Amino acid sequence: DGVVDKKDACPDTPGLKTLNGCPDSDSDGIADKDDACPNNAGLANLQGCPDSDGDGIADKDDTCPNEKGLASLAGCPDSDGDGV
Asked: How far is CA 37 from CA 6, 16, 73, 83, in A?
């Protein structure tokens, strides 16, 4: 991968120079070793996991990944505001 093993964060796996020699399987700019969802492109603030509905809760932790919701409700909406 062009990174000297001494400076390579992933010396046993071919990777990218920009990621200190580590691979990025989903091309989201987050090295697989630091990516909680290495096969799905995601956001840095969600450890590399996607957030389909943009509510700030990673899809893997979101009970309702296609509807904006509340963290207190595991990512599901509360349309009537009763907390349930």
From this structure: 27, 18, 22, 30
Helix (H, G, I), strand (E, B) or coil at 8: coil
> How many Cα atoms are found within 13 Å in the side-chain-facing hemisphere of 32?
13
Please state whether the predicted TM-score (pTM) of the whole model is above 0.90: no
Give residue-wise pLDDT tens across range 42-79: 999 999 999 999 999 999 999 999 999 999 999 999 99
CB atoms within 10 A of CB 71: 11
Phi-psi region of 59 (alpha: psi -120 to 50; beta: other; left: phi over 0): alpha
